[in-house]
Amino acid sequence: MLALDLLGLGPVLPVVVLDRAEDAVPVAEALVAGGVTTMELTLRTPVALAAIEAVAAKVPGIVIGAGTVVSPGQARDAVSAGARFLVSPGSPESLVDAMAAAKVPFLPGVSTATEAMALLARGVTELKLFPASAVGGPALLRALSGPLPQLTFCPTGGITPETAGDYLSLSNVACVGGSWLTPPGLVASGDWAGITALARARPL
Ligand SMILES: O=C(O)C(=O)C[C@H](O)[C@H](O)COP(=O)(O)O
Asked: Active-site residues: which are they?
């Protein structure tokens, strides 16, 4: 799979934070039931790698990836656990090297034209804009599309169901990332039907 194919899996890439590994499979199944076919599980909690492993083994209907990849070792560990793509909030060179070497699609994070140009120079054209709403939102992406039309973005950070459409209508946006499909309260209470309902209500 190429990074562009990853971005084409759906207009919303759910960003999921889990405190309990046993929640991973039901959350993934709830998203699949709502029509979602991909999920970014963040490496922010100690259970993240186990959670990725469980989803990779038990939920064939979802393309599972790792988010919050901030070190080269995490890129390697996530792929060993079964992550089929990698997402990072930033793009330090050593991390981009490791993500490229991992041989799965990856979305390095940028928030400026200079960072985006550094990645373009090494042939990386699919990027995460982070933190999207804080660094300029749709206006920034529209401005970047002029001088850098080769780039395709998955903006993430502060995007809501209400603002997602403003991003998705842009020529250089393929999908948006967001945590709103899996709110901590619904995950903690095991409200899988509630997650399915949020997934169904996402922009299509
Ligand atoms: O974990 C990462 O790799 C990140 O870069 C941060 C996430 O993209 C945001 O935390 C998304 O969360 P919301 O803003 O709640 O939608």
From this structure: 40, 128
Kindly state if the Cβ of 15 falls inside 6 Å of ligand 1. Answer: yes
Cis peptide, bond prior to residue 108, ω within 30 of zero: no
| Number of residues in the chain | 204
Beta bridge partners of 63: 38
Residue (of 124, 16, 111, 122) closest to 68 by Cα position: 16
Instruction: Give the burial class of 19: count Cβ atoms within 10 A of its Cβ; 0-12 exposed, 13-18 middle, 19 or more buried.
Output: middle
Q: In angstroms, rounded to a whole number, what is the distance separating the alpha carbons of residues 45 and 27?
A: 16
Q: How many CA atoms lie within 13 A of 50 on its CB side?
A: 9
Right CATH for 3-190 from 3.40.50.1820, 3.20.20.70, 3.40.718.10, 3.40.640.10:
3.20.20.70
ipTM over 0.85: yes
pLDDT tens, residue by residue, 35-53: 999 999 999 999 999 999 9
Q: What is the pTM of this model?
A: 0.96
Q: Which of 17, 39, 43, 130 to mutate to test the pocket of ligand 1 (most atoms within 8 A of CB)?
A: 130
